[in-house]
Give the backbone structure.
Amino acid sequence: MSRFRLGILTDEVSQDLREAIAFAQQFGLQALELRSVDNRLLHQMEEEAIEGIRLMVDQSGLSICGLSAPIFKCELDQNRYRAAVHSHCTAIKRIAHSRIQFLGKSCVRGGAAEDCLAD
């Protein structure tokens, strides 16, 4: 058995999760990474919508390999971007407390802050 599962980032295929699932099944993929569904980021969704996503994926026979969070895709200079940094920290807490619990994932992928890329 392979240690790796092939998967896709669902919103790169479609914002409609059913279409992304059908695509993954058509090409023999085993996993899905979630970032946004129905043009909504996961951390902005209600618990009922997240539960619906989990049920749909479970019924498809695919697994969720990770969550892609739109965090720290900004400059981190706290003097200039304090509100942005605070917003990203709030998103992390929301993702950590509810999305990981509902979707059963401990892997959350985020972006690199622009400050980290300088030099």
